[in-house]
Amino acid sequence: MLMNLFGSGRESMSAVDTAWLRMDRPTNLMVITGMMFFEGEIDFERLRVVMEQRLLKHARFKQKVVRTGTNAAWEDDPDFDIANHLHRVALPGKAGKPELETMVNDLISVPMDFSKPVWQFYVVENYQGGSVLVARIHHCIADGIALIQVLLGLTDKEEEPHQKAAPKKSKFLADEREPDDPFMRLYRPVAKMYAGVLKSYGKLLGTSYGLMANPGKLAEYTQTGLGLGQGIARLAAMPADPRTKFKGKLSTVKRIAWSESLPLPEVKHVGKALGCSINDVLLSCVAGALRGYLIERGQQVDGLTIRASVPVNLRPESKLDKLGNYFGLVFLPLPIGVANPIERVYEVKRRMEEIKGGYDAIITLGLLSVVGSLPNMIEQPAIEYFSTKSTAVMTNVPGPREPIYLAGAKVHDLQFWVPQSGEIGMGVSILSYNDRVNFGVMTDKKLVPDPSRIIEGFGAEFEKLVLATLLSVLDCPPDPEMAELHLAVLRMQSAS
Fold first, then answer.
1. What's the pLDDT band for 388 if we cut at 50, 70, 90?
2. 103 falls within a domain
3. Within-domain flag for 126
4. 345: alpha, beta or left, given left = phi > 0 and alpha = psi -120 to 50?
5. Where is the O-acyltransferase WSD1-like N-terminal domain (predicted)?
6. 246 φ, ψ (degrees, to nearest 5)
């Protein structure tokens, strides 16, 4: 429990969570939006009971935000009523994907009501013969890794779980994932490395006596300090991202789109054939889809590189089931200018390897901690400055590998959208679940009014990559035009 600075009944908000709270603005709301699709109808009353028993055990979901000067705190809501947060709705018309998309588009531009706890769940009861749960949770409550813990804590591995034994605490362990999946490749190894760096650097700053007693450690700590110093200088000198159709003055209206899921085993096969990770393959498809969108709109893309801000988990394993934000950011240069799908995968891999050895994540987490402790008038210029460095926020969150059930209803699919900060106008979300991979895109309506066109490019880019990989295996030159031709033939065959 943090020290109580506000008097009885209030808990101080951490500096990092305060930073995310104050990033909220009309043009970019700091709200994580997710959807859970069910194979059949979900029992609303049973869901309410599950949420009361499992969600509300986290005090944060019964607390509202209180702001005083430069500080913020969590305070129990004396008037809390779950009915203000769990709603049942119905879609109009054919109650299909267009109607659900319209509903979510309407929700994502609505600010949270800070007079109540900052989360809302909506049960859509008539979507394509089943139900959908739409969730909106403010970023100051938790990051994506923590919210996965909350999700797993609500669900069961079977339709009718045994009720005799008390449910075990949910804990998502990276060791349970396959060593080549996105979480193991990007999040955990980097998190462990940065956690060690943070610990060492903390000793450097705070234990001069320890250095005198152990002079052999001086070189190690000095090297860490030099690395951090060089990283700060490099980030400060990093030029702004180039102006494209994705970057410009923002409006207050967002648009979302989501993809049909890709089979994870096929993504693994392609990665294995090319000697790359799943993450390399997926991010290459993202770069290809963004490239295709820009070309369609007449933009020159030869040699173009744009950066994506990629969250990196710095959460210690002891805090895997704790709420709050424990991540930094790295800036990944996406090779938009590379046309050949195989060359693009290898270029993504090379760039990922370069950023893994840097200090960007720990620096940005430290920056958030500092600015969250300072007046808002200092935080906002800092956020604006760093938001010019990238064009998109891109996050890759691992979900359960096996099917899960919520209130007795089987979860068919999962989807979510990551918020953007400052002047960033696009978020790209990748989520794996039950051997499938889903893509979601959120854009500013003024810049990209039709994010579905980007979404359509993900699947097409993966198909091109599959065909190019097959050609390379057959010792044929990986010609993107040939891949396009094969793709066109396959589509014509399937249409006939």
1. confident
2. yes
3. yes
4. alpha
5. 13-281
6. -90, -5
Given this model, what pLDDT does residue 321 score? 67
Mean pLDDT of the 265-270 span = 88
**What is d(CA 171, CA 318) in angstroms, rounded to the nearest whole number?**
10
What residues have CB less than 8 Å from 34, skipping those under 6 apart? 134, 135, 137, 147, 414, 415, 416, 417
Domain of residue 442 covers 1-284+301-450
User: What was the pLDDT predicted at 466?
Assistant: 87
Domain of 241, CATH number, reads: 3.30.559.10
With a cut of 60, say whether residue 182 has pLDDT above it.
Answer: no
Check if the beta carbon of residue 36 is closer than 8 Å to that of residue 123: no
* pLDDT one-digit tens code per residue, 468-481: 887 776 655 555 55
Q: What is the tens place of the pLDDT at every residue in 307-355?
A: 998 887 777 766 666 888 887 788 899 999 999 999 999 999 999 888 8
Q: Are strands 426-433 and 392-398 parallel, antiparallel or unpaired?
A: parallel
Q: Are 426 and 442 in contact (CB under 8 A)?
A: yes
Q: Taking each helix axis from N to C terminus, what angle separates 264-274 and 278-296, rounded to the nearest 10 degrees?
A: 100
| Helix or strand run (H / E) with residue 46 | helix 44-50
Q: How far, in Å, are 20, 28, 113 from residue 251 at the CA level? A: 20, 9, 20
What are 399's two structure tokens? 């979900």
Q: How confident is the model at residue 298 (pLDDT cuts 50, 70, 90)?
A: very high
Q: What one-letter code names the amino acid at 364?
A: T
Residue 118 · residue 419 · CB < 8 Å = no
| Contact by Cβ (8 Å): 406, 50 | yes
The residues near 176 (Cβ < 8 Å, ≥ 6 apart) are 401
The torsion angle over the Cα atoms of residues 287, 289, 292 and 293, rounded to 10 degrees, is -110
Count of domains observed in the chain: 1
Q: Looking at the domain assignment, is residue 121 inside a domain? A: yes
Q: How many residues does the chain have?
A: 496
